[in-house]
């Protein structure tokens, strides 16, 4: 396998810009548990082992139960997720797989109803950012 470039070293300004968005996200009102569910679910869809490992550890620190982490891949069938978490996970799925069929009106409206405009915007930015990080990690084959 060919060694990949280190984007952070090759384009430090790009990494700084991404970290600036991360700084914004760290200060948002969206609950930490929802942020971690978004990060893990998108990373599972994108098959980003680097981010799955990182964010499952952070989810445990945030107080998410192991049983819930084990069930994220089957969240639609699992009774462990409340309606707010389900709305956020549906939005995460739609946004991560946006090329398939876009963001459905049902997912968008459910999230808006459960979160309101401000938290919905924050959730959307969290989905956007973890998808960017997944691509960063996968394209460069980042390792821990």
Structural features, described:
By secondary structure, the chain is mainly α. 74% of the residues lie in helices and 0% in strands. Helix 3 runs antiparallel to helix 4 (49-62) and helix 3 (32-45) crosses helix 8 (105-140).
- Terminus-to-terminus distance: 17 Å
User: Which fold name is given in CATH as the topology?
Assistant: AhpD-like
CATH class designation: Mainly Alpha
- Main beta sheet, described? none
| Series of secondary-structure elements, N-terminal to C-terminal | HHHHHHHH
Question: What is the share of helical residues?
Answer: over 70%
Kindly give the count of domains. Answer: 1
Query: At CATH's second level, what is the architecture?
Result: Up-down Bundle
Structural class: mainly alpha
Given the C-alpha coordinates, what overall shape results? Answer: globular
Report the mean per-residue pLDDT as an integer: 95
CATH homologous group name: AhpD-like
InterPro entries: AhpD-like, AhpD_core, CMD-like
GO molecular function: peroxiredoxin activity
Protein name: Carboxymuconolactone decarboxylase family protein
Domain Carboxymuconolactone decarboxylase-like: 13-93
Secondary-structure map with pairings?
Elements lengths: L6 H4 L1 H15 L5 H14 L3 H14 L3 H6 L11 H14 L1 H4 L3 H36 L4
Can I get a quick summary?
The chain is mainly α. Helices cover 74% and strands 0% of the residues.
List keywords for this structure.
144 residues, 8 helices, 74% helix, globular
């Amino acid at each position: 396998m060919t060694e990949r470039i280190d984007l952070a070293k090759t384009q430090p300004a790009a990494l700084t810009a991404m970290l600036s968005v991360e700084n914004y996200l760290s200060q948002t009102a969206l609950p930490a548990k929802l942020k971690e569910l978004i990060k893990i679910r998108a990373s599972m869809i994108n098959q980003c082992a680097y981010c799955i490992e990182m964010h499952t550890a952070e989810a445990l620190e945030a107080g998410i139960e192991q049983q819930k982490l084990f069930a994220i891949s089957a969240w639609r069938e699992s009774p462990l997720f409340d309606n707010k978490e389900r709305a956020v996970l549906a939005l995460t799925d739609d946004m991560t797989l946006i090329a398939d069929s876009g963001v459905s009106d049902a997912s968008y409206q459910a999230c808006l109803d459960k979160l309101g405009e401000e938290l919905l915007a924050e959730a959307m930015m969290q989905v956007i950012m973890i998808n960017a990080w997944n691509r960063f990690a996968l394209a460069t084959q980042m390792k821990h």
